[in-house]
Amino acid sequence: MSVAQIGKGSLPGIARRAARRDVTFCVALIVFGIVTVVAIAGPWLSPYGPNDLYVGPINGAPSLAHPFGTDDVGRDILSRTLAGAATSVFAPIVVVLVSTVIGGTLAVASAWFGGIVSGAIARIIDVIFAIPGLVIAVLAVAIFGKGLAAPIIGLSIAYIPVVARLSQSAAARELGRPYIAALRVQGVSSLAICFRHLIPAMVPILAAQMAVGFGYAMLDLAAISFLGLGQQPPAPDWGSMISSGQVGILAGAPEQSVFPAVLVVVTVLSVGVIGARVTAWAERKEQ
Predict the structure, then answer these.
(1) Where do the H-state alpha helices sit in the chain?
(2) What is the mean pLDDT of the chain?
(3) CA within 13 Å, CB half, 228
(4) Are 59 and 50 in contact (CB under 8 A)?
(5) Cis peptide, bond prior to residue 234, ω within 30 of zero
(6) Dist CA 66 CA 48 (whole Å)
(7) Rounded CA separation 150/147 (Å)
(8) All domains in the chain, ordered by first residue
(9) pLDDT number for residue 167
(10) Burial environment of residue 242 by CB neighbours within 10 A (0 to 12, 13 to 18, 19 or more)
(11) What pTM value is reported for the model?
(12) Confidence class of residue 156 from pLDDT cuts 50, 70 and 90?
């Protein structure tokens, strides 16, 4: 792959070309963009405070005053859903960024040095990979306490092996290309080869993995909050809202669980479509 080809493989270029050819991909981008804007602007869009009590009737049905209804203590569900979007969206982003940076670094080091270094990294990855991500997150909660920080740390560690295994093979293929050998002969430094050529060539694959990993991270964090180990009440979070909404379901008012659950599913689906399309494009480029 030449430097020019690598430039064409930038993430914005991938998105523009895929959007022109694929309406589903374009819709997924729009949906995820809207969710991201809501996550950023949620506090300003909320008609009520997310923790304001008795702003409406207990377990009230959707109405003009409360489009998503109210919960078992009269809080506005729309306001809580908008406020909870920030943690529900940005916490998974932190997980995938941390795991991608660390996993990608390990992959490049393994492919570049090989030998003992590669073997040691492979053993570490195998050990982490053998433990389910949720188990690591629960162990982190046991060590650091309940809240968002512990699950983020645990899931970031759990996702490192997935990124490392995928990107290690990609890095090894790239290092075997003739232009890398030519750069070495010309005396180009190892750091320059890595940062100017190797890492940019891996961006499409890493971006695809980040998109897929985001969906898994959102589901895992929602599950952890559902179990009461993540974001703690009364702070809003889509996972904890689904859990606390069980009271409303029994009372014949499922809105508190339904709306956050729908948003989790829609967000994960949109990011999954984006990840699938970028992965398919990256595989075609490799062929």
Answers:
(1) 3-8, 11-21, 23-45, 77-113, 115-129, 133-144, 149-175, 178-185, 190-193, 199-226, 238-244, 246-250, 255-286
(2) 85
(3) 2
(4) no
(5) yes
(6) 9
(7) 6
(8) 3-286 (1.10.3720.10)
(9) 86
(10) buried
(11) 0.84
(12) very high
